[in-house]
Amino acid sequence: MQTLKDNIRQNILDSARHEFSQYKFEKASIRRIAQNAGITSGTIYSYFKSKDELFCEVLSPLMKELNSYMTESMTPESKIESKFEDGFIERTIDKFMLFVNTERVLLKILLFNAQGSSLENYKYDITERVVHDSRLFLANNQRRHPEMNADICDATMRLHTLLMFSTFEEIIIHKMTKEEMRKMLEEFTIFEFYGWKNALNM
User: Fold this and answer.
1) Largest alpha-carbon pair distance within the chain?
2) Helix orientation angle between 2-22 and 51-71, rounded to the nearest 10 degrees
3) For a disulfide at 181, which of 21, 28, 123, 176, Cβ 3.0-4.6 Å?
4) Per the confidence metrics, is the pTM higher than 0.70?
């Protein structure tokens, strides 16, 4: 019985993922999701309280990965010198490409189809969290490197974080190939790397 319930739930999620990838949240239809899953609309509501809850559940694997991706390198305990080690740029590009290639469909849903859902402002919400963590990261590292400039304004850090989302959007809008993505990321990451190195006086 539990296996059957789990299968139905997964069928709903698979159908919803397809629906939300084709339509913006407000235009997505519970009726179509149910039809494609081979069940009634009422069955969906026995598993999920609302369309928004279903939308959030479809995106929950991405949210976990994205929250980790956006914050793990800027924890207060991170050492800034690790970002200037040999191979850092290459590792950053490889990690970014793996993330996008794995999560491209869900990124499209989150960044382009979330209007009207509880996740429509996600990129702005997590940006504020990243700015907060980055402020602690810079302050802690300045104690270890007094010559370092940690006086980076919040607006600059917000812009830097939002550029990450703009990069996701650029890749998705233009349906970049792996080769096109790598070239763009190599150019952009070098620009970012030396810009931050100069701004931080490192």
Assistant:
1) 65
2) 80
3) 176
4) yes
